[in-house]
Every structure is written in C-alpha cells, then in structure tokens.
Amino acid sequence: MRWLVAVLLLALPCTARADHVPGHGASEAVRSLNSLGGGSGAASSRVLVLQEFSRSRRSLTPNRTYTTSLLGEYAPHRWFSFGVQIPLLVLDEDHRPARVGLGNLRVVTRVTLHADKLFHHVLSFGVNGTFPTRTVAFSVDPGKTWIAAPYVVFTRNYRRAFWQVFATTPIETRPAGTAIDISAAAQGGYRFWGVLTPSAGVLASVRALTWCREPDGSAALCKRGRVTEIERSMGTTLVAATFGLSWSFARWGMLAGTVQVPLTPRREFDIAGSLAFQAAF
Question: What number does CATH give the domain 2-280?
C-alpha cells in the first residue's frame, strides 16, 4: 500500500489532505477541493474514486495517513446534486503498527445556478456534512467529530484557460470544543489539446473562532486551540501552494491529481497528495 501511493505521487503530481488529528477546518477545505475531482464544481451525476495521502511530523501524533474514498453523487436535476463519500482509512503512526478502518463519512450537496445555460461562468454552492463514523483511533485522539461546511465555488472558463475560486467555512465540533475556520483557494490552468490541464494555485485557512469545553462541560470562547490541537490559536493562518494535473481521456472520464506544499512556518503536514478517477454519467 505504501509503495503504491509513493509511486503514484512521483508519477503524477497529486490536492492534499492532512491535520494534526483527524477532523479540522483546513483539512475539510482540502477534502472538499479533492472531491471536486479537477472539475468546475457543477452539479452532476458521477462516481469518484479518490486516493489521498499525507505525512505529518508537526503533530501530537506524528503519522502517515492513506485514505481511499468512494464518492457517489446523483443529480435529479441539472442544477442540483447530492451524494455520499465513504472513506477507508489507513493510519500509520510513528512507532506504532499501522491500523485500518472506516473513516468519517461525508454527505455532499451542490446547487449550480443556471446550469442549463452557462458553461463559461459556473457558480455552485452547497453544504457538506461530516459524521463521526471513524473506527481507527489516534494515540492522542480528538474523539467523535462533526463538521458542517457551507461552501461556494466559481469557475471562469475560456477557450483553453480557466480560473477558479473556492471558499468554505467549516464549523467543527468535537469533545474538546467547537471551532470555525475560514478557508479560501484560488487556482488557474490551461487546457492543452483540450484534454491535458496543468494548474497552480494557493489555499489559505484562518482560525476565526474557538470555543473550548471545560471539565465541567461548559464552553467558553478561548484564544488558544483546543486540547487536541497545536498552533491553532484564533487568528492563526495556514497557507499552502497547490499544483495540479488533470487528463480528460473521454467525455465521461477524467484522471486528476495535485500536490500541496505548505508555505507558512505553521503547517499541518510535510507532504500530501491525492489522485482521483472520475466517471460522469
């Protein structure tokens, strides 16, 4: 499993996903970008197979994670779609045997304005939800995590070039408290021969608010991060560069991947990546 992921990362630059412990606003932003599968974010019926990898040394539990997800999305109308993402998680912490189990289940929704008319300007929005179905525990575990993440994505297509902006505000609750992050990404690319598209961009996430739960069960606004986090006090900003490549090998199919490189001293990972196969119908 490890050598296969390493080969994929070397052969095809792959968007990243990682955090100090699972379930974090910045990671939710990256996970949402990964689930776009290199597309415009328009509502669609599709099946996405997504392989994600991350390595984190700056963590309460230094680890490598490998997540293989199956996402099925259905559009009863051209302007609306909904789906479910089921992840299989391989957790390989330093100095501990690797463990395999179910990751946190996600439900995705998407609304695309004027989907029957527009191609050059594609505006979509929705809410993604994450549920605490994870069966693999970290050495320092955050416990059951719930996330509600409203988001918006806009893609401007030209004849060959494109640019895209994405924003989300994950609201995450775990036993240690509740946190709200504001995350935004921008990227652009160029389509060669109409099928091969390299891209580059930047992703930033800011910790906006944190409520820490006290031992007596009460919660109060706190500037520091929750007990399961490090370097996540209010106002902390994480920035990373993203580089991608997608191949539209058929009208219905696409391979896509990116690599994400942290740009700030405070970071969630050392290296991370993903590779996606999408079939639309």
Answer: 2.40.160.40
Q: Where are the domains of the chain?
A: 2-280
| pTM higher than the cut 0.90 | no
DSSP E strands in the chain: the ranges are 46-56, 63-77, 80-93, 99-102, 105-112, 121-131, 146-157, 161-168, 171-174, 177-190, 196-213, 219-221, 237-247, 253-262, 271-280
pLDDT of residue 26: 63
Distance CA 98, CA 79 (A): 42
Contact 279, 253 (CB under 8 A): yes
The residues facing 47 across adjacent strands are 72, 279
pLDDT along the chain (281 residues), means of 10: 36 35 64 83 95 84 90 96 96 92 96 86 96 91 93 94 96 94 96 94 95 87 85 89 94 93 87 92 91
- Residue for token pair 């179910």: 102
Give percent of the chain with pLDDT exceeding 90: 63
Return d(Cα 105, Cα 179) in angstroms, integer: 19
CA atoms within 13 A on the CB side of 123: 3
CB atoms within 10 A of CB 237: 12
